Amino acid sequence: TISKSQSVISGIDDIRKGKIPFGRIGIVVGSAVEQYYLREISDENRNYYPLNSQKEIYSKLLSGVIDAAISDTGLLQYATNQLYCNLTIVGEDFDKSSYGIAMPQQWLYEQELDVNITSLQESGAIDDLTTKWFETSNCPDPSVISTSIGIEAMGGLFIIFAAISVLSLLLFLWTQRLSIKDYLLTSACRKKPSAQPDASLDQSFMKISTELPISTVAPSLPSSSARNHLYFQTEF
């Protein structure tokens, strides 16, 4: 049984139990698989999705027309390992049978071909060919793909985070532009030297000075110890 990578079934038994609609199961019309399906699954009820060729199995699966299909194991192994990496085989083999080679009756090389095929089976050559062409996958490792996607996603998140940080900084500067402008003007005024004395300070000093009455008295008779001094008296 073949289905998409994210399958809801695990094998032929799930199809029998109706885990997916029978109308979304693809069967090639006129094939041995159709006979098996009618005999073992649907009780001669043609409730499946009819397909005209093996190739149509893959196109209908990829386009989402069907959810699963039943076909020969060898054909499905080659397709999923070599051609359609986003499709997968689910479950174990069932209804095992052998492949045959059609040839004309009384063919001259019939016996020779039979002997050589038997020899290849006994030597393990057919098993080697099966492994090479049907069981060996040329598809990329899913774990490697997941890792690369994870790194790319992290890189994208980093870029988004950096962009948000820059925008946040610009927004903060825009909202605080008046405060920053006032701060710069204040700093510039503090550094600028004063060209004229503070008039208010001079006026205050003059006012205080003028409000202090000063009177002078004539000196008394000088004594010997203080004849060189003048005395001033100030009344507050």
UniProtKB/TrEMBL annotation:
Source domain of life: Eukaryota
InterPro entries: Ionotropic_Glu_rcpt
Segments crossing the lipid bilayer: 153-174
Keywords on record: Membrane, Transmembrane, Transmembrane helix
This protein's name: Solute-binding protein family 3/N-terminal domain-containing protein
Species annotation: Didymodactylos carnosus
